[in-house]
Protein 1
Amino acid sequence: MLSAALRGELVKILGKGNVSFEREALVSYSYDAMNRKYPPDGVAFPGGAGDISRILKMANRENFPVVPRGAGTGFTGGSLPIEGGLTLSLERMRNIREIDAENLTADVEPGVITGDLQAEAESRGLFYPPDPTSVKFSTIGGNIAENSGGPRAIKYGVTRDYVLGLEVVMPTGEIVFTGTRKTLKGVVGYDLTRLIVGSEGTLGVVTRAFLRLLPLPPAQKTMLITFKSLEDAAGAVSSIINAKIVPATLEIMDSVCLRCVEEYVKAGFGGVEAVLLVEVDGREDGVGADVEDIRRISTENKAVGFRVASTKNEVKDIWRVRRNVSPSLNRVRPNKLNEDVVVPRSRLVELVRGIRGIAETRGVLIASFGHAGDGNIHVNVMFDKTNADETGRGEDAVKDIFELTLSLGGTISGEHGIGIAKLPYLSMELTPDTIEVMRKIKRTLDPNGILNPGKIFSKERSPGYI
């Protein structure tokens, strides 16, 4: 618990309106998309790096946890204050400080909504590619903490590929700059930028990000392709990649997803077992050729429908199918274990076939969708937590899926991170020596273990320390 004296000190640092200990605030900041609740002892709303530096120095002196938080859209519990302490909400820090069209860079604060940055860049003929499904809600700071990807990763990469440098408040309160601000190259010292990106708020608090932008592609085409077999759809994905076509997005949805989302979009998916959503961009002539090649490949892989959007509204209608998959799944079961495994693209058919076998063996419903173009599939094991037997079979299925993924040369998390949800499975993929190196980095940068404790690593030491 935060004592009255500590509460008073926080009010002095931030001002009365920028820190709260009221029950309503504690409840509001107690959960994320993982939907487990861990109320903090207080919620702070800093206005800049100086505020955060003073808070972290105070936390080290008094030994209480500090948990950074973006918009709370994460699926692995990365922003949950599992040991109480102070939640550090960065929502006040939401300025797009600069977009430099000449150098193709952006300077933004961590609370900027990703979709807002994309819209601002596009209004100037520029393009910020990272595109998580939560783009309308998630923040740049949260995307950096999780190294978020999204549908465009197949062609454009993930968040780390667009971070030139960062302003970061270290766990012990120092304010440092990593990387560069406007240059594409820079090899002065260790690559601290890459160390911070994807560290899930355990190694520092990002307070400013210097990002790389691209010119906006002049042409784009969006396709919706239907199949009677999920394996045929997965085969089409492999065939598209083997044909040396690099779509901007290449998404897959199975029959469980389609059944759920049909109530939202009324797209007429009856008799269809799988759908691919494909987008190509670039020069007008190249985009047209890609569409025709994808049409041919889809036909060769037994597609039963091929639709090309001809208006912006049709593009929105097609994307509504994909964007509404995750929120619609509770129509078949009230609870889900949402995993984001990745396999080499050449093993996608084997993954799809294996997941189907696991569902049958364990007697559970599994919905699969996601970024097929880069082998990243979101596997949702559906269950009702009031049914202990079904819950147990669902948990067993998750472990089976991870074992299958690793046997295919894949990884157990492509963009959701580890947090607390995947913490028990970390050693399935990483060796003890690898994990110990990571622990040493954490201990060195956060000697008192106050920043986002209990995430990524299992607890082996005293409370508040990994």
Protein 2
Amino acid sequence: MKSLNNILVDGSYSMDKEDLLCYGYDASGLDMSPSAVVWPASASDICKLMQFAYQNDIKVIPRGAGTGLTGGAVPSNDSIIMSFERMNRIIEVDTRNLNVVLEPGVINGDLQQTLAEHGYFYPPDPASLNTCTIGGNVAENAGGPRALKYGVTRDYVMQLEAVLPDGRLIHTGVQTKKSVVGYDLTRLLVGSEGTLAVITKVRLKILPMPESVITLLVAFNSLEQAGKSVSRIISDGIIPRTMELMDRITLAAVNKYKTVGFPEDIDALLLIEIDGSANAIAADADKAANICNGFQGKIRIADDTASRELLWDARRSVSPALYKISPTKINEDVVVPVTKVPELLAGLQALSEASGVPIACFGHAGDGNIHVNIMTDKNDKKRYDEAEKLVRKTFKLTLDLGGSISGEHGIGLTKSKYIDMELDTVNLDIMRGIKKLFDTKNILNPGKIFPPKVHT
């Protein structure tokens, strides 16, 4: 790796042990030290690095902020980590054409703040928005609470600039609202988990800020009743911008982690947010409240900005709060059709009771995306083995309900051994062929998505 000084300037790479330790892990808990870390400042730097890697058969792992939960940014010990924190410019905010151009290292929350100053917003809002980068969001096709109404990252990416594994620079997509010229390479790269190309620039759609927002907090004595409320609200034609669920275990964990005062003598809490024109959302909020009342939900309204921000701060604290009470919990993010949410929640509760392993559920109930947290302890082998069995059982339950084993976290390393539960051989062969077409030497984020046996 010493030959890196032939292609990169001093200070743009490191092989110091301290730096390698800092970039060897992500939020999955997996950990492996790379051989080097590089901090490119431009697409030109990345082209040079990928050409060097291609010529020397060196593995390269693109990395955003390391907030991914499936090991997508975890290196192997003979690889280079490519970190994008120096490519963090918002290049253009074009409010006339409703788009923004930026580099991959821009923090999602920083983009949100900049756009708010102009009266606009970017809908995808992962819980880690104050840390995660747009490049990482694009690579994982990130969602977030607002995905219920506004969609996920893929719905907002208009153009990409990216570097192929052999160092060639490509541009995909268009600035216009429509285009059907050739295959849609932009949508292919979004969600590809850094396995096909290295993203260097992104053009995203943006939207005007909504006129008004109403936030409802609804408490239920039954997790299943909360799920039925979600299904009924959607089927009655009400589309909130968010409909977030937290169960009893989750609420207790958050209350220990932050001073919020969530009720703990209930089985579930829904955080429902409706936005749009003031008159329209008032009517929708009344309808949603009546539906929840019909399922014995008790309603509180957060009617000011400070109250709403407190609630969302608490919601975004859920994952770290659960880690506080179970440091080695297994976190999965399954998704089912909204009408199947009650069955999913009931099934997960039954799995927990039968195994004796607590399962905490929270997440984006409005679009069927539930974060399933199996509360376990790696130091207790028997309990951890039982928890791992629950992962497969959870995935089977999800697939039997017409769902998917990952709504927004991706496959990475942790889910690769389960991918054939959802995808058949034909689909997997096509995907492996696409990977090989882009990356003939298998040097770009190898080992992710597909089980290791597929690499030759």
Protein 3
Amino acid sequence: MTLADRRGGGAGAALRRRLTDIGPEGLGGRAGWAGVVEILQLISSALVFFVLARLMTQADVGVMGAVLGVAVPVASLSSLGSHVLLIKRVAQGGSVTDAWQRATSVGVIGPSLGAAVAIALRPVILPSVDGWVYALLMLSQVSLFWLTELAVYLGNGTRRLKDAAQIRFLVVSCRLLALAIFALLGDGQLLGWAIASFASFGIGAALALGYVWRVFGAPPSLRRWSRTEVHEGLPFSVNSVSESLVDVSDKPLLVRYDHAADAGIYTVGARIIQFGYLPIRVLLRASDADLFEAGRNGTASALAVTRSLLKPGIAVGALVGAGFMVLAPVVPLVAGPEYVDAVSTVRLLAVLPLIRAVQYLMGNCLSASDHQWWRVGATLVGAGLNFGLNVRLLPTGTWRTAVFTTIVSEIALTALLTAIVLGWVWREGAPGRHTTGA
């Protein structure tokens, strides 16, 4: 009998059944619907990007990318981990309506304030961007987008991934309809797309909220904001921002040290590798509720679930990496002959999906067992190591140097997270020590 069974009684057996069941209620069935969620998002994002790239000037595409580069960390920080807390509360037996109303209160007020601050700081951040374009895109990508994401995450927390997929389909449909209208009736100007984008996200958010209200019986709320929400959610926001620093710090530094061509090669390679994280995200989405349910019994219980996910996670990461190794020569055929060196970049970075599979699972194990600040600390160490190596080595380095610093920092972060998880298992299991909080 596992520690999860001893502490959780029949809950441990129920969790094992769900993790091995390939039916619609088991991990296999949920992974299938989670795949639909991720594929819909991937296809819609790719279509929007490539169509807009054909319709608009390179300068406008660059402005759009710059605003998105500001919006992502703003959304990560201002959302205060509302999506994780939503999954955690529902998965651990809390009221769906209560969890949803607390999440929407934070998910509306926090990102709205974050977007307002970002808009106010536009003259400092991106002074050359038109004010209306900046404001509309910021509100779309921060406030409205986050509401639709919360609706999808509610499906994860309740293990109703089919509902999550249907919500994603509604949102994606609005997005693609706006793209079609802009392509057929628009003049190719960025302001026109900013208006269409804002309208599509607004309608998508309304449909997502209406779906949750009708199907889950949970209306949204703006009155459940509290200091508790901020205190509990802040570490998740800080962790999201620090994870993004691990991903992006080397690219601007390559440009800063006059390696623009190397930055282009590395950016293309790293961007392609990011597509390999999709099957890993599918596995995580499908198992979030199980992991947080186990986590309320301590780190050992969460680790028992994590161990059952490591085998498929490692297998997926290895298969994706092998696929990149084989398909890497296609890169210059798609991106252009000037990116022939990106073939080597992709092959060297092909180990990342395997590393990230273990890293994400160990990090989620800490989050599920209420040790999120330890995860934040580890991620900050990883970000600091990556930044320090880049500052030390990139001035005289190349894209190969950036690959080296990335792999070293990712391995170090994964090892640190694993050591922290094992440390908490030992601490909670030691005689007279059964602490479950960080």
Protein 4
Amino acid sequence: MTASYISISYTQLALAALFILINIGLSFALNLGLGKSLLIASLRMVVQLLLVGYLLQWVFTLRNPILILALALAMTIMAGISSVNRTRRRFTSIYWNNFVSLFCGSFLVTGFTVSGIIQVHPWYDPQYLIPLLGMILGNSLTGTSLALERFMEDLTNRREQVEALLTLGATRWEAAHQPIKEALRIGMIPTINSMMVMGLVSLPGMMTGQILAGASPVDAIRYQIVIIFAQASGTAIATIGVVLLAFLSLFNQKHQLTDALYKQS
């Protein structure tokens, strides 16, 4: 198959915006109150993606691993902040916990994928490293925010039950085991659901993009399988990490549930 693709002009992008205008029109017609949110989200998305596009054009010309890793680190910091901002409750070290969890999950999995599986040379080639890291971070961000939100809400709603178990002699792990288990399950549900229907109901964006760019469908599918496995692993590592770090932050070594948890106003 000849590698070729149809370039999309800014005029064609403007035509695509009609889809969003239809949604905004329906929102106003049905009095849903979503028009403003749709407009702001659409404008932010366009501006952010265009800026990222121009940034990536520059990044792809780099051959300096320090600058590339600095960009990867900045992406991870933003993912950690976004993950926390999706939760309603806070504790002192929540931002640090999220960053550490996302960093460990995404960097370990991306590094192994680039160096051990795809075998990119050099390993820091931004054409592979940055997009792969971005996809893994995006999925991990969703998993960590859902798991953390569920864990903190469960501890709040079940506080009396948890403290009763601790009073009766249960360890902090025994008292928090059920909320931890449920939080991890919730954090992994989007990834598992996506994997279950992939190829039957949905075609992944990365694979579709490769095919539209002229790649062989079989090659695109192989890449997509590798990426899905990497996303699932990165999400699992980050989700487990953020829940366990939250557990250690909210339960002290005396097996007591602390009062560190508060609701964001």
